[in-house]
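Annex B. Sample input.
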Amino acid sequence: MTAMTPGSNIPLSAARVTVDVAAPVRLDVSGLLLTADGKVRSDDDFIFYNQPGGPGVTYRSGGGAAPDAIEVDTAAVPPEIEKIVVTASPDAAGQTFQGIEPTATVRDAAGGSVLATFTPPRLGSETALVVMEIYRRNGQWKARAVGQGYADGLAGIATDFGVTVEEPAAAPAAPPVAAPVAAPQPPTAPPMPA
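Annex B, continued. Sample output.
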């Protein structure tokens, strides 16, 4: 097992790997399939609890008892996909990573043996994190420790990688309020000559 540091990488000795991300709080874990330009091909390449499967990549819920995970079957990943980015964000709205040390564990999906671990250092106001990358280089699949934080949550990560994030519908505008109109006053009589 290898303890990774930011920017370090290891070759993957297994064709199917699982990356789980554990912390003292519940995390939402997701994966993004990226092409050479660093973007998804479409929103279908964003794999998470509401869209748990894509070509060669699967989201697995830990059900609250175990960490959520992204499984990558490198043999089934389309050739135009060069990288799978694994992200995490605290499940509680607005919670940051301050005081939370998430740890990503890369495992051989077949046997469960641990290939590497990574705990990003010095986290603070980040509300989402690119934890790890599974990427292809010269025909070889590798894992890279990233630890890049985002202050604008998972939506910020998704947008950076080309996913269309639907904004919550704006509240309908209130109808304009008309200014009160004064009631007409009867004309006043002209002053009488004195």
